C-alpha cells in the first residue's frame, strides 16, 4: 500500500506529467497544508522512492529537473491502494479523503462496488459505536469521556454523505 504522500504524488500524475516544483504548487493550491502537509524534502524523497520502485519515471524531457509520469505499475499500485482504503475504517480520516480524491482511477463499476463495501463497513461501525455511546450515557459517564466517540459518529455520518455524492 502506498503512503499518503505517495498517493498524492501518483494521484497528481494521473493528470499528466509534472516536475516536483509543479507538484508542490498544486499541493499548495489544494490547501493541503491544513490536512496533510507535504514539504519539499518529503516530496523529493518520495519521488525518488517511487521512481526506484518503478511507480513513476523521469521522462527526461527537461535537462535540469526531473519531469515525472506515472507508470502502469504505479497506476496498478494506486488503484489497489484506493480500493484498500475504501475497504477499511481508520481514525485518521485523511486516508478516506485521499481515497475519494483519487477514486477517479477506478472504473464506474469498481467505484460502485467500493462504495457498497464502504457503506456496509460504515453502517456496522456506526451501529456499534452508537450503542456503545448510548450505554455510556445511560451509565451517566461524563461527556468528556464520550466526546471522542461522538466525533467518530460524526465522521462516519460525513463519510456516508460523501459516498452519496460520489
How is the secondary structure organized here?
Layout: H1 4-13, E1 18-19, H2 20-29, H3 40-53, E2 56-58, E3 67-70, H4 72-86, H5 94-101, H6 108-138, H7 147-165
Antiparallel strand pairs: 1-3, 2-3
Helix pairs in contact: 1-5, 2-3, 4-5, 6-7
Q: What sort of overall outline do the alpha carbons produce when their principal axes are compared?
A: elongated
| Spatial separation of the terminal alpha carbons | 23 Å
Overall pLDDT: 96
User: Which class do the helix and strand fractions yield?
Assistant: mainly alpha
Any overview of this molecule?
By secondary structure, this protein is mostly helical. Helix content is 64%, strand content 5%. It has seven helices and three strands. The protein has a three-stranded antiparallel β-sheet with strand order 1-3-2. Strand 2 (56-58) and strand 3 form a beta hairpin. The mean pLDDT is 96.
Amino acid at each position: 500500500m502506498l503512503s499518503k504522500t505517495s498517493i498524492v504524488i501518483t494521484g497528481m500524475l494521473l493528470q499528466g506529467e509534472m516536475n516536483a516544483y509543479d507538484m508542490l504548487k498544486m499541493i499548495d493550491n489544494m490547501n493541503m497544508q491544513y490536512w496533510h502537509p507535504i514539504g519539499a524534502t518529503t516530496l523529493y524523497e518520495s519521488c525518488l522512492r517511487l521512481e526506484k520502485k518503478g511507480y513513476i519515471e523521469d521522462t527526461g524531457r527537461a535537462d535540469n529537473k526531473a519531469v515525472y509520469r506515472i507508470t502502469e505499475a504505479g497506476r496498478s499500485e494506486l488503484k489497489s491502494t484506493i480500493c484498500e482504503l475504501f475497504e477499511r475504517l481508520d481514525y485518521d480520516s485523511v486516508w478516506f479523503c485521499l481515497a475519494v480524491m483519487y477514486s477517479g482511477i477506478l472504473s464506474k463499476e469498481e467505484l460502485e462496488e467500493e462504495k457498497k463495501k464502504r457503506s456496509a463497513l460504515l453502517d456496522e461501525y456506526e451501529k456499534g459505536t452508537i450503542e456503545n455511546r448510548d450505554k455510556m450515557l445511560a451509565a451517566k459517564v461524563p461527556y468528556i469521556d464520550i466526546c471522542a466517540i461522538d466525533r467518530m459518529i460524526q465522521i462516519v455520518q460525513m463519510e456516508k454523505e460523501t459516498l452519496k455524492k460520489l
